[in-house]
Amino acid sequence: MEAVIIAERYRIIRPLGSGGMSHVWLARDEVRHVDVAIKQCTVPPGLRPEQREVIRTWALSEAQAAARVRHPHVIRTLDVLPDPDGPWLVMEYVPGRSLQQLIQDKGALPPARVAEIGLAVLEALGAAGRAGLLHLDVKPGNVLIGDDGRIVLIDFGPAVTTAGVAALTRARVVLGSPKYIAPERLFDRASTARSDLWSLGATLYHAVEGQPPYARGSTAATLRALAAGPPDAPRRAGPLTPVLAGLMRHDPAARLDPAATEELLRRVARPARSTIRRRMPALAAALTLIAALTVGGSAQGVENPPAPLPPGFMWWQDPAGLRLAVPTGWTAHSTVGTLTFTDPADRLTLRVGSWPHPPRDVLADLLDQERAVKLPSYRRVQIAAVPAPVWEFTYTDPKAGPTHVLRQLVDGKYLVEWRTPRADWVTSLPKLTEIRDSFG
């Protein structure tokens, strides 16, 4: 079969998915020699001729407007190609699966993990808002969980600008899934940034409960339930319940604003930072990837420690004001900007530095650092910027052998690196948890 080439450049490889308004394929960019995702935006069935014409009129300019949004948690559009049947969007290809697929495969997710996802989507919506745009199609199927841990909002709605939204409103066109559309969009034909917050709440509800907030079977039954009032009370959400209730208030003016939403989500996501699989920080270049420093001296405790510690730990007080718990018997060494602790067997290493001026785009900076890595047998475990910058990887140290490294921003200002032999990684994690949670 002859290969299909789009715009004399993008060779179609295989389908990735399809929906009511688009078909997506994996393609090869024969110019840049990279894989991309390419989507054709189409007009959904069931619309009147004048409604279809409005969508066709606005499709290209709205797609070009959405393509201008640049953020690590928003899928990057590389090109927009005009076509009479609907514009083609060429996007970065992020291997992974949608939140919808993740829920189908694994069921309801823990509240802390859902909060992490919510923070990423909230950041994406903030980036769109700063560009003067709405998304208007936030739902689990449009949240992509990359194989590398990256969380990406995809597929903006057909109208994202004020003018585009107004044009579709005049034509009485409301597109999307009723399970996630804000009630004012369905019943009042009003779409604002608060409408995206409702959809975020409905998406998080689905993720933590394992089903949409208005799961009533038919579309008509869903709409009746939505018009009647709030969704069913969540049973699994736990600490996430106030976020869901605050985002899914019928009155848009009464909903949580982005700042309050972020604060509540961070409180819920905080336990996720203590788990083995948490996201690693984008540490500054000052924390080197190479061999551990030679250390000397003993870790010094402080009198009258501010809080009790488990057996085997003592408080360390740095003259500059840093206080943290360290295992008893570890040695310490200080260099300019970095404090290093090592266990008596010289196998586990903790490094702490400061990060006074983090880059504006943490994830992009972290990925740039990774591209410069030349470590033997380097393998990424996880990279993410939310809820805190994180970078975790393994490599083969020329002297120590297989090594596992975790780098994370702690307490908003400390860069922490935890380095162990790969075989000791799991058994060392309780120590790391105690150390990280003691910062102050």
Kindly describe this structure.
By secondary structure, the protein is of the alpha+beta class. It has two domains: 191 residues, Transferase(Phosphotransferase) domain 1 (Transferase(Phosphotransferase), domain 1, Orthogonal Bundle), CATH 1.10.510.10; 125 residues, Mog1/PsbP, alpha/beta/alpha sandwich (Protein Transport Mog1p, Chain A, 3-Layer(aba) Sandwich). Helices cover 29% and strands 24% of the residues. It is built from eleven helices and 18 strands. The strands form four sheets. Strands 12-13-14-18-17-16-15 form a seven-stranded antiparallel sheet, with helices on both faces. A six-stranded antiparallel sheet has the order 1-2-3-4-6-5, with helices on one face. A three-stranded antiparallel sheet has the order 7-8-9. The longest helix is centred in the first third of the chain and has 20 residues. 39% of the residues are buried. About 8% of the residues have low confidence.
Identify the notable features of this structure and list them briefly.
440 residues; alpha+beta; Transferase(Phosphotransferase), domain 1; Protein Transport Mog1p, Chain A; seven-stranded antiparallel beta sheet; six-stranded antiparallel beta sheet; 18 strands
